[in-house]
Amino acid sequence: QFPDDPAVLVRKLAELRLEHRDLDTAIARLSIDPNVSDELQITRMKKRKLRLKDMIAWIESRLIPDLDA
Q: Crossing angle for the helix pair 39-63 and 6-32, nearest 10 degrees?
C-alpha cells in the first residue's frame, strides 16, 4: 500500500495526521449544533477517523527501526 521510502512515509504521515485533525474539528462542530446534526455523517466521519488512526499507527511502526535487528 505504501512504499518503504522513509521520506514518502513521513510525508504521508503528515497528511494523515492533518486529515485526522480536520475530521476531529468537523465532528466537534457538527456535534455542537443540534439543528445541523446529521448522525449518519458524524458516524461516517468517526469511522474514517478511526481508519486514519490505524494507518497513522502502521506508518509510525514502519518508521521505527526494528529492535530485534
A: 160
Report helix, strand or coil for 69: coil
Q: How far apart are CA 10 and CA 46, in angstroms?
A: 24
- Report H helices in the chain: 6-32, 39-63
DSSP code string of 31-45: HH-TTT--HHHHHHH
What pTM was computed for the model? 0.81
Q: Render pLDDT for 12-68 as a digit per residue (tens, 0 to 9).
A: 999 999 999 999 999 998 888 777 668 888 999 999 999 999 999 999 998 887 655
Angstrom CA distances, 46 to 5, 25, 26, 51, 57, stand at 29, 11, 10, 9, 17
